[in-house]
Amino acid sequence: MRLEPMRRRHIRRCVEIEKILFSGDSPWSAGAFHAELDAGGYYLVALDDDGEVAGYAGLALLGRPGDWETSVHTIGVLPSHQSRGIGTALLEALLTRADELAAPVFLEVRTDNDSAIRLYEKHGFSRVGLRKRYYQPSGADAYTMTRPARRAQEVAR
C-alpha cells in the first residue's frame, strides 16, 4: 500500500467507494470531490499493490498562514481492505499536514462508529460537541471532535 495525492483520475473510484460505505447518508458525488480539490484541500488516496484505490482521505484547510484551522472532511477504506492499517495511515498523513501548519483539527463522526471514534481518540482527539441528525437522510447523530494544534517539531520529540 502506498499513499499519494488524489488526482482527478482517482475520483470515479472514490465515488464508487463512497456509495459502498455511505449509501444511507448521501455519499459524495464526483462534483463534491472536484470541488474539494479545487478549493485546495489536502487529499490522498491509498493504492493497493495493483495500483487500485483502496481508500482515500481529505483535509480541508481554512484560514490563512499563521492562523490555519483544518477539518477532516472524509476518510474511506474499501471493506475488503479494512483492518489493515490503511485508515490509520491516511489519518496520520492528514495529521502530519495539520502539524506542519500548526493547525487544530476538527471532524465529525457518527456516534455509532465505535472503531472510528477509538482511532480518533488514540490520535489525540476529544469530543467537544454533538450534532443531532447531522447525517442525512439517515438522521444519524455525529460527535464533533477536535485535536489541538501541534507544531511538527513538538511531534518529533
From TrEMBL:
- Would you say which domain of life the source belongs to? Bacteria
What region holds the N-acetyltransferase domain? 1-150
Which key words are in the record? Acyltransferase, Cytoplasm, Transferase
Please give the coiled-coil regions recorded for this protein: none
What protein am I looking at? Ribosomal-protein-alanine N-acetyltransferase
Q: What NCBIfam families does the record point to? A: rimI
Q: Which PROSITE patterns match?
A: GNAT
Is the keyword Iron-sulfur assigned to this protein? Answer: no
- SUPFAM superfamilies in UniProt: Acyl-CoA N-acyltransferases (Nat) (SSF55729)
**Family per similarity comment:** Belongs to the acetyltransferase family. RimI subfamily.
Asked if the record carries the keyword Acyltransferase, the reply is yes
Which organism does this sequence originate in?
Prauserella endophytica
